[in-house]
Amino acid sequence: MANPQRENGHIDIASEIANKLREFRIPGVNWQILWCILRQTWGYKIPGTNNKKKFDAIALSQFAQWTGLEKSIIVRSLSKMVLHKIIIKKDKKYGFNKNYDEWLYWKGHSIDKKVNGIDKKVNASVGKKTNKSLTKRSIGVAIDKKVNGIDKKVNESLTKRSPSIDNTIDNSSIDIKQAEVKTSATSSFFTKVKNYYIEQFEKNFHTKPAISFGKDGAVVNRKRGLFATDKEWQLMVRWFLNSTKAEKCGNTLSVCFSTDTINRFKIQKAQEEAEFSPPPKPSALSPADQKIQDEFYKLPLAEQERRKKENAEKLAEIMRGAFK
User: Fold this and answer.
1) Do 237 and 293 reside in the same domain of the chain?
2) What is the pTM of this model?
3) Can you say whether residue 229 is alpha, beta or left, with left for phi > 0 and alpha for psi between -120 and 50 degrees?
């Protein structure tokens, strides 16, 4: 029979935080991950002191050993917990965020809000356009109508058909073919991106990333036109996986192809190009001089500076001899 005792080790959690945790829904395996972090931080006393740890470097293998979960699931859970600000990742260490005002609700979680002084249950996942979307019913919805005293199911879309049914069918088949071509193109782009992202992710973190074909696929396909070549988005993927943004916001494919990430990548790329671009070359040079100058600019920067200094000293010596 289990008989745990407080003197054998305990975790001190403020009642205020306990109250918040009992009303805050953390779905799935995320609870297990959270308790692993709490046990290794607030539940770990620093030897020689009365202080507990705030952060701890916990390896994926340790999470897997304690929870029995696969590493890919653990990586996905850690990313979500960091994204929802339940835990904090700092210098490859994890800690619990006790400032519950920063916690972000999961999609679909019901929370209490006050509207005009009246308490109402509202759903965090419901958008502002809910009421509008309810008023705009599909034309193809079947409704009951009385026709000559007989109940029949009729479709409202029949009233808006073209006089020529053949033309309607032909146009519909063309639209379907165009949609199939477009879907095929976007799917192949997402497949390329997904495979490359998985390859680079495994190199960096030695585990497979969690890919959502619905959410990630939609985000990636929307950003397809922002890249002139495959090389450009491949550079961005490598840059993102090594950036601090990936650590703070979660290294998911959706975050990688977000508008903010793309803008940051392009700004940094432009800055680097401006910083390391060679100085403008003078015009109207002879082919021989042009060749010498091209070879000069191919030299390392340190060698270029050394030669410039050497030439300047020679010129100064010539000038001093001319004025003697």
Assistant:
1) no
2) 0.36
3) beta
